[in-house]
Batch of 2 targets.
Target 1
Amino acid sequence: MDFYSGQISKLIEEFSKLPGIGAKSAQRLAFHVINLPKDQVEELAGAIVNARNTVKYCKNCCTLTDNDLCPICSNENRNHRVIMVVENPRDLAAYEKTQKFDGVYHVLHGAISPMLGIGPGDIKLKELILRLQGDVDEVIIATNSSLEGETTAMYISKLIKPTGIKVSRIASGVPVGGDLEFIDEVTLLRALEGRTEL
Ligand code: ZN
């Protein structure tokens, strides 16, 4: 891309590193940004830097938040004795959109994948086990129905079983290999209601 100035090429290169952004989209975004009023560009850049600097893991459930505790963990009206385990914050958001789950969550930030070399120590499992020392009635495993999601669900259920806490898995209304975040709310609710004890 020598026909662009160095700064533009650099901007295109940075955009093309983002997920789902191909070469064409990166160019379009770069030229869009260059044509924006300066104050808007500063706002955009500032929002990116601020988000990166201030967003952290919730001390309790490990989802992303601005504070020590996320809004769900700090909400006294939620049932803190029922924990739904999900792979990432987007899955949490998918269940929150249904407005039918009043428990709390635990975000693993990934799933166990021997093929990709991701082991139990690479996801937020220790944090989950620590939480189980408190008053917990049920752990609902809502990892994706991919091979990694199933492997993770099995691993977690074996880990929890000896504690006597009820462990359940969301029903397979969720298509095999399906990412929770792309599934409609009705299917998500059916999967939750039809969960089976492991
Ligand atoms: Zn939280």
Note: The chain has seven helices and seven strands.
Target 2
Amino acid sequence: MFPEVRLRRLRRTPELRKMFDLTFPPPAKFIWPVFLVGGTNRKEPIASMPGQSRMSADVLIRELEPVVAQGIGGILLFGQHDGEKDNQGSGAYDPQGVVQQAIPLIKKAYPKLIVMTDVCLCAYTSHGHCGPLDMHGNVDNDAACEMLAKVALSHANAGADVVAPSAMMDGQILSIRDILDEHNFTDTLVMAYSSKFASNLYGPFRDAENSQPGQGDRKGYQTSYANYRLALRESEFDEEEGADILMVKPGLFYLDILQKVREASDLPVAVYNVSGEYAMLIATAERGWGDLHGMVQESIMALTRAGADLIISYWAPRYNEFFK
Ligand code: PBG
Ligand code: ZN
């Protein structure tokens, strides 16, 4: 106790702080989410996410060069669908789809980059929900699982290393693991968006992806932020269904959940530092109300402290600028 013990001596100089401080995760732990569009030579800046763009595959491959050079571990692909949308979201498993076509090109250019794909239907359904609607207008869970399995298979066929189902349907991990194994994709990993909350922080992403539900919201499938036990059961179930990686999403408002999931499981746990978390810091910095570098560093350290093994973040391509 004071005065024999003086805590400030442990942080007196930059060198001492450096010695005792936790370090930022290396770039290999970071995953950059990217928005793919069809065609060529397309780069459309996303207004709600300054610094991020919708890109065609050729542009993405160009933009990936400095990202890969920094040692970023992987990318998470989201496809934007220009074609017909239907109740089922059948465009999502089209072998000619943007994601399916881009994967082999990306793998060819960067064989060591881990390519992950978001497996969902909302960018492909006419109504914008994450699964087909039944005759009463409710998302049909089991029909959604069948569709999601087909989507995951199409991504694995194209060469995805990791498929990441984000629809929050019951049994989706089991359906996907089954179909992958049936087709001998036993090495394809499944990263479950396991505790994904019905959050207000997805707004900028929905602008980017055009995936806003036409009617209603996602509260019937994404988990409630006011019921943390149910959110924890979601991750437990996904582990039992065969997920290789769990995920908590969003990150910064859910550090308690992240810590609990980390403690309850021995699986790797990813965190998704979502679009609203990204836009929030940029908006604050733009108004001169906070230093961007400091806020980015502090927020990523918070995710690390809470136990994230993998960090899915729009800051990933700027790793050297923020974390080196
Ligand atoms: C689609 C999906 C969403 C995000 C990732 N996958 C949006 C949603 O659920 O509405 C959000 C990502 C972000 O905000 O950065 N299922
Ligand atoms: Zn969705």
Note: The longest strand covers residues 30-37.
